[in-house]
Amino acid sequence: MPPAQKGLSALWLRPCHVELVGEIDISNSAQLGSDLCDAINGCDARDIEVDMSGVAFIDSTGINVLVAAHRYAKDNGSHLIVHEPSERVTNTLALCGLLPLFNLTSRRHH
């Protein structure tokens, strides 16, 4: 994975699991899209977890990246799971009507 982009860190904690920390916006969304495609291509498992508990902000370009990554994963026989989304990410996905699209998981809701 390349060095952290401005305002965003993407950490590979284990295979098929990416943790995002920081802000996702137009300055880093293209690189994030590439990184997520690499994660999907490099994962032998059916599910790819994207931990978003550390994401403080996401704009429309970030939302577009998540939707595109979801579609790419589905086209490749996988599922993109948004894990532990921060309240701000959850609210943004809800405002966009996208909560049903993602397999959201959170320990806070169990």
Strand/helix succession: EEHEHEH
Structural class: alpha/beta
Average pLDDT, rounded to a whole number, is 86
Enumerate the strands of the largest sheet in spatial order, edge to edge or round the barrel. Answer: 1-2-3-4
**Low-confidence parts:** 1-5
Strand content: 25-35%
Radius of gyration, CA atoms, in whole angstroms: 13 Å
Overall morphology: globular
What is the straight-line distance between the termini?
A: 32 Å
Q: Determine the fraction of residues in helical runs and give it as a percent range.
A: 25-40%
Q: What would you say the CATH architecture is?
A: 2-Layer Sandwich
Q: What would you give as the CATH superfamily?
A: STAS domain
The largest sheet, given as strand count, sense and whether it forms a barrel, is:
4 strands, mixed
Per CATH, what is the topology?
Transcription Regulator spoIIAA
Number of helices: 3
Number of domains: 1
What does this structure look like?
This is Anti-sigma factor antagonist. Belongs to the anti-sigma-factor antagonist family. This protein is α/β, with parallel strands linked by helices. The protein is built from three helices and four strands. A four-stranded mixed sheet has the order 1-2-3-4. Helix 2 (60-75) links the parallel strand 3 (47-58) and strand 4. Helix 1 packs parallel to helix 2. The longest helix has 16 residues, at 60-75.
